[in-house]
Amino acid sequence: MPFRIGLHPVGILGGLFLMIVFGWSVGVNNLLAVFLQSPVSEKGYGFTPNQNAEFTFAAWAGCITGQLYGLAFNDKLPLWICRKSGGIWKPEFRLHALWIPSFVGLNIGLGLFGAALQYHLHYMVAAVGNFLLNFSSNVAVPVLVNYEVECFTKYPVEAATIMNFYRTIFGIAIPFFIDGWEASVGVGWVFGMMAFVSMVAFGLIIVLMFAGHKIRHYFHSSIMSTEEGTRIIGQEVNRLDVEAH
C-alpha cells in the first residue's frame, strides 16, 4: 500500500519535492565535518572536532525555529485561507505554509552556505546558511506528510511511511556523488545548483497548490479519500463531501 500511495501522482509530486529539500539538508550535515575541519590551506575553516560540534548549534536552532514556525502557521495559515475561500476545506490549503521556508529560506540558505565555502567568508555566514537549510527542511516534512495523509485518510500510516522513504533516499545518495560534483564545478556552484534545483522543484508544490484538487479527481483511486468539501468555518458546519471523486 505505501508504494501505491507513493506512485500516485499526488504522492510523486509531494514525495519528489520532499526528497530534494530534505536530501540537501541531510547531505550537507553528513559532510559538514569535511567542510569545516579541512585545513585553511585547503579552503576549509580548520575547525577542531569541538568547534565542529559547536557549529551544529546552528542546525539545532534551525530545527527549533522550524518547529515554532509550524506551531504558528501550519494550521493557522490554511484555516485563514479556508476562511477567505468560503469556509470549505481543501487539503491543498496546507501547502501554502511552504512559501517562506521552502521557496525563500531554503534557496537563500543554500546560496549563503555555498558562498561562504567558495569565498571563505566568515564561518557565521555558513552558520546562517545552515540555519536556514535546517529550518526549511524541518518545516517541509510535517506540512507535506500532513497533506499526503489528508489525501489518503484511510491509510495515514502508509502515507507517512512512503513520505519518510522519499525524504531519506536522496540524502543517503548525496555523499556518493558530491565529491565528483564539486571537482567538476566547484563548491560554490554545487550549492548554487542545489538552489536552482530547489526553485524548480518548488514548481511541483505550486502544481499541487493550484491543481492538486483536479489531479486527485482525475486520478481517482480506491485508496484515496479526503475531507475535501467539509465546511469547517461558518455558521452552518457540515460535511458536504468526504470522499474525493
From TrEMBL:
UniProt keyword annotations, A-Z: Membrane, Transmembrane, Transmembrane helix
The UniProt record lists the keyword DNA-binding: no
Chief localisation class: membrane
Claim: Calcium is one of the keywords in the record: no
Coiled-coil segments on the chain, per record: none
Subcellular location: Membrane
Cellular compartments per GO CC: plasma membrane
GO molecular function per UniProt: transmembrane transporter activity
Membrane topology category: Multi-pass membrane protein
Stretches that traverse the bilayer: 12-35, 55-74, 95-117, 123-145, 157-178, 190-211
Name of this chain's protein: Uncharacterized protein
Annotated organism of origin: Knufia peltigerae
Lineage: Eukaryota, Fungi, Dikarya, Ascomycota, Pezizomycotina
